[in-house]
Amino acid sequence: MRVVAWNCNMALHRKAEALLALRPDVAVISECAEPPRLRGRSDVDWIEAEPVWVGNNPNKGLAVFGFNGYRARLMPEYAAYLRYIVPVRVEGPSVFNLLAVWAQIAAAGTNRKHQLGPLRRAIARYREFLAETPCFIAGDWNNNVFWDKPGWRTNHRGTVDSLERLGLVSAYHEVRGEAQGAETIPTLYWRDRRKDGPTYHIDYIFLSRALLPRIGHFEVGGFEAWCGNGLSDHVPLLVEIEDLQGYSCSAL
Which domains can be identified in the chain, with CATH numbers? Predict the structure, then answer.
């Protein structure tokens, strides 16, 4: 089972072939147009199951797509004030919880020093949802411990620590053995999309710690394939979990 997280930088209808080449079972796509617009602008209907989509701008929201028999369902506890932090139940060959993320601190009206960011507030609200296993949190988090400041409640370290207490860890950091803030592979090639320009690691896939032995493959997309050719300023993350079929939430 393959989970992909990618900020497509809009115009997904022109980039669907690149996404599908990753053979995702579930894809969390930030800056994605609403499904009717995607279908209307695509030459072929590549959307297999009705996706979950949230957003105010029909050209730029957050979507969760299911493929290969997987489908996404928005959970009733979704809090609209946490607009781009979305609890989703994924059903199909296996069943699991997914918190899709496109974190926007400014959009949430957050004072970066004194108030929790939207993801930290979502972790508190969806605590029981996240504690079920298997569970994934995936998307564009727009944060890294590189920017942490003493006493700021939006610090990324606080988010990581909160998730670790719930048994959720970063696939990238566990697989590569790198510390938070010391990532050697960026996920964002900012502004000019140059390989030697400003780069940051701000996209993540977290998963239940119990799933770590089941990771069969993990990768971060390369610059040339995703940014150098103009697809996006972000590269995708992909994690493949082996032997998940037949499992449902809290079964591990």
Answer: 2-241 (3.60.10.10)
